C-alpha cells in the first residue's frame, strides 16, 4: 500500500488573500503533493491549509510553506482571536494510509530539524512527536503565546527541540507534530456573552474547569488547582465571540473522533446550552472531515428518527448537515469539505460517474468496452437497488412503525451490495483493458515472450474473477429481493419482481463472460472449478427467481 500522510499547517494570516494564496500554492510546486483545502478565518486571522501526498514529498512541501510564511508574515504585527506564536503556528503530520504513527513522527522530526537548521526558526515537537511528556499538549507548548516567547526561549526547561533558542521576531516559533486526524469544530450559540460560552465549553471539554468554592480556587496537597472534568474525552474547547458573525461559538478540537464523534460533541454542547438557557443555532467544520464521521452522524440522527439507515451515503450526509446545522453560517459542500470527495477526481470510476445517457452512448459506441460484463454488473446494481427501495418504503409504512429496524437492516445490506456491484461496472472494463494491454506487449526476445505470456494469463484470470464476483454479489442480493417480495410493502411487490429479473439477468450475463474468458486459459483445474461453481449460481438464481415471481404474482392478484 502506498504511504500517504496529510499535513495541516495553520498560518497566522487570515485576511490578506494574496499572502494566503502565495503561501498555500507553494506546496503544489512539489510533485506528488495535492492541495486539498485552504480555509481562512478573518476574525482569528488564521488560515488552515490541508495537503496530502507521499511522506517525503509532504515534508518537502511543508518546508517550503514554512519558509514562505516566514518571509510574508510578520508576527510582530499580528493580532487575532486564536492563540498563536508563529507565522506557521502549528504544522501537524497525520498518517492516512500505509504508514504508522511512529513512522509519521520520524518525518515530523526530519521536518523540524530541517526548518530549525536552514530557516533559523525555533521548533517544538508536540503530541506523538513530543520529546518529553510535558511537551505533548499543544496548549502547554504554546502557553504565553508570541508575546511570551523571549522569556520562554531563555528558560532552559523550554529550550527548542530544534533550531536556535534566540527569539525570531518575524517568524516566531513553529510547533510540529505527528497526530491522529483532528477535527476543528465550532458550535454556534444565540448569545454574544463570551463568559456564558466559556461556561458551556468548560462543561463539555475534557479538561473541564478549575474547582472553586465560594469563588476560591480549590487546590490539592501539591498546591495544584483541582479540576472538575468535562463530559467529553479527547475534546479541547473554548468559548469566543466572532465579530464576523455577531455570535459566540464553542470552538473545539476533536482530537480523536473515534472517542468523541462530531455528533456527540454537538449533542453535548446542545444539552449544556439548554440547561444554561441558551440555544445552539448550528455549527461549522473548519477544514476537512473524514467521510465516515459524517455518515456516522447521519446514521445517529436517522436512528433517533426511527428511520431506515439503508439510504445512500449522500442522503446520510445531508441528514447530518441539517441535524447539526452545518450550513447555518455558510453552505456546506461535501465535495469541498469531505476529504475522500476532495481527493477523488473520478478517474477510478469513469463509467459509474457518467450520466445515464452518456453511459448508454458509450456502450453503444464503436469501442469494445464497456461490454456485457459491465452491463451485467450495472443491471445487478439496479436489481438490488429496487429491493433496497422496497425496504426503505416499508420501513416507514403507516402502521409498521415497530418494524423500521427490520427493514432498515435489509436496506443496509442492499446498499452494501449495490456499492459492490457498481464498483464492478468499472472493474470489468478495466479487466478487459488489462487483457488488451497484455496482448500489446513486445514479443521479440524469449524473455519478452515469456513476460507477455504471463501478463496475458494474469489478465485473463482477472477477467474471469471480475464477472464471477458480479455473480456472487447478485446471488447474495436475491434473498433480500425475496424477503421484500414476501414481507415488504405489498404495493411495491412488482418492484421486487423487477429486481429479481435484473438479478437473474446479471448472473446469466456475468456467467457468459466467465465462460468466454476461460476458453484460452491453460489452468484446467481453475477453469473447471469456476465453470462448475458458476453453473451452480445460475441454477440457484433460476430457482430463487421462480419463488420470488410467485410471491409477486400472488401480491398483484391475491384473489386469483
What's the short version?
This protein has 560 residues and is α+β, with helices and mostly antiparallel strands. It has 17 helices and 15 strands. It has helices spanning 17-25, 55-72, 101-119, 138-141, 149-154, 194-204, 262-275, 291-304, 313-324, 334-337, 339-343, 356-364, 372-395, 404-439, 446-487, 493-518, 524-556, and strands at residues 4-7, 10-11, 33-41, 46-53, 88-97, 123-127, 174-178, 183-189, 209-210, 212-213, 216-217, 227-228, 235-242, 247-254, 280-286.
What features would you describe in this structure?
With 560 residues, the protein is α+β, with helices and mostly antiparallel strands. The protein folds into 3 domains: 4-178, Formiminotransferase-cyclodeaminase, Chain B, domain 1 (2-Layer Sandwich); 183-343, 2-Layer Sandwich (Alpha-Beta Plaits), CATH 3.30.70.670; 356-556, Formiminotetrahydrofolate cyclodeaminase monomer, up-and-down helical bundle (Four Helix Bundle (Hemerythrin (Met), subunit A), Up-down Bundle). 51% of the residues lie in helices and 14% in strands. The protein has helices at 17-25, 55-72, 101-119, 138-141, 149-154, 194-204, 262-275, 291-304, 313-324, 334-337, 339-343, 356-364, 372-395, 404-439, 446-487, 493-518, 524-556; strands at residues 4-7, 10-11, 33-41, 46-53, 88-97, 123-127, 174-178, 183-189, 209-210, 212-213, 216-217, 227-228, 235-242, 247-254, 280-286. The strands form 4 sheets. Strands 1, 2, 3, 4, 5, 6 and 7 form a 7-stranded mixed sheet that branches. Strands 13-14-8-15 form a 4-stranded antiparallel sheet. It is globular. The termini are far apart. The model has no long low-confidence stretch (mean pLDDT 94).
Amino acid at each position: 500500500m502506498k504511504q500517504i500522510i496529510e499535513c495541516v499547517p495553520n498560518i497566522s494570516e487570515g485576511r490578506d488573500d494574496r499572502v494566503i494564496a502565495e503561501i498555500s500554492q507553494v506546496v503544489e510546486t512539489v510533485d506528488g503533493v495535492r492541495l486539498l483545502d485552504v480555509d481562512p478565518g478573518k476574525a482569528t486571522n488564521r488560515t488552515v491549509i490541508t495537503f496530502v501526498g507521499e511522506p517525503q514529498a509532504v515534508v518537502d512541501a511543508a518546508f517550503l510553506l514554512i519558509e514562505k510564511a516566514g518571509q510574508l508574515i510578520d508576527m510582530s504585527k499580528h493580532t487575532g482571536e486564536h492563540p498563536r506564536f508563529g507565522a506557521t503556528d502549528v504544522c501537524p503530520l497525520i498518517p492516512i494510509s500505509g504508514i504508522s504513527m511512529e513512522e509519521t513522527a520520524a518525518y515530523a522530526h526530519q521536518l523540524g530539524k530541517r526548518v530549525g537548521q536552514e530557516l533559523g526558526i525555533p521548533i517544538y515537537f508536540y503530541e506523538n512527536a513530543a520529546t518529553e511528556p510535558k511537551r505533548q499538549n499543544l496548549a502547554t507548548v504554546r502557553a504565553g503565546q508570541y508575546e511570551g516567547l523571549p522569556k520562554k526561549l531563555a528558560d532552559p526547561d523550554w529550550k527548542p527541540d530544534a533550531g536556535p533558542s534566540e527569539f525570531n521576531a518575524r517568524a516566531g516559533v513553529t510547533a510540529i507534530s505527528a497526530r491522529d486526524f483532528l477535527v476543528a469544530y465550532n458550535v454556534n450559540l444565540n448569545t454574544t456573552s463570551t463568559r456564558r460560552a466559556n461556561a458551556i465549553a468548560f462543561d463539555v471539554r475534557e479538561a473541564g474547569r478549575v474547582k472553586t468554592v465560594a469563588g476560591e480556587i480549590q487546590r490539592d496537597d501539591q498546591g495544584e488547582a483541582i479540576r472538575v472534568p468535562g463530559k467529553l474525552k479527547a475534546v479541547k474547547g473554548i468559548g469566543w465571540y466572532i465579530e464576523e458573525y455577531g455570535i459566540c461559538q464553542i470552538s473545539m478540537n476533536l482530537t480523536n473522533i473515534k472517542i468523541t464523534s462530531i455528533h456527540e460533541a454537538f449533542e453535548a454542547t446542545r444539552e449544556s446550552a439548554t440547561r444554561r438557557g441558551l440555544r445552539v443555532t448550528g455549527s461549522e467544520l473548519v477544514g476537512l472531515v473524514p467521510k465516515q464521521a459524517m455518515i456516522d452522524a447521519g446514521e445517529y440522527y436517522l436512528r433517533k428518527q426511527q428511520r431506515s439507515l439503508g439510504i445512500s451515503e449522500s442522503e446520510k450526509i445531508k441528514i447530518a448537515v441539517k441535524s447539526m446545522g452545518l450550513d447555518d453560517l455558510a453552505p456546506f459542500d461535501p465535495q469541498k469539505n469531505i476529504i475522500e470527495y476532495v481527493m477523488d477526481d473520478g478517474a477510478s470510476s469513469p463509467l459509474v460517474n457518467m450520466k445515464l445517457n452518456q453511459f448508454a452512448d458509450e456502450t453503444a459506441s464503436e469501442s469494445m468496452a464497456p461490454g456485457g460484463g459491465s452491463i451485467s454488473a450495472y443491471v445487478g446494481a439496479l436489481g438490488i437497488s429496487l429491493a433496497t427501495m422496497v425496504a426503505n418504503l416499508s420501513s416507514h409504512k403507516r402502521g409498521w412503525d415497530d418494524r423500521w429496524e427490520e427493514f432498515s437492516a435489509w436496506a443496509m445490506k442492499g446498499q452494501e451490495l449495490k456499492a459492490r456491484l457498481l464498483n464492478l461496472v468499472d472493474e470489468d472494463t478495466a479487466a478487459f483493458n488489462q487483457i488488451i494491454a497484455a496482448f500489446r506487449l513486445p514479443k521479440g526476445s524469449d524473455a519478452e515472450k515469456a513476460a507477455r505470456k504471463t501478463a496475458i494469463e494474469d489478465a485473463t484470470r482477472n477477467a474471469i474473477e471480475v464477472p464471477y464476483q458480479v455473480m456472487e454479489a447478485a446471488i447474495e442480493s436475491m434473498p433480500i429481493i425475496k424477503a421484500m417480495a414476501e414481507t415488504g410493502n405489498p404495493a411495491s411487490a412488482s418492484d421486487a419482481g423487477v429486481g429479481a429479473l435484473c438479478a437473474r439477468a446479471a448472473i446469466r450475463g456475468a456467467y457468459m463472460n466467465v465462460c468466454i474468458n476461460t476458453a484460452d486459459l491453460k489452468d484446467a483445474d481453475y477453469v473447471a472449478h469456476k465453470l462448475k461453481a458458476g453453473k451452480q449460481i445460475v441454477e440457484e438464481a433460476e430457482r430463487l427467481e421462480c419463488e420470488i415471481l410467485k410471491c409477486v404474482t400472488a401480491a398483484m392478484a391475491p384473489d386469483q
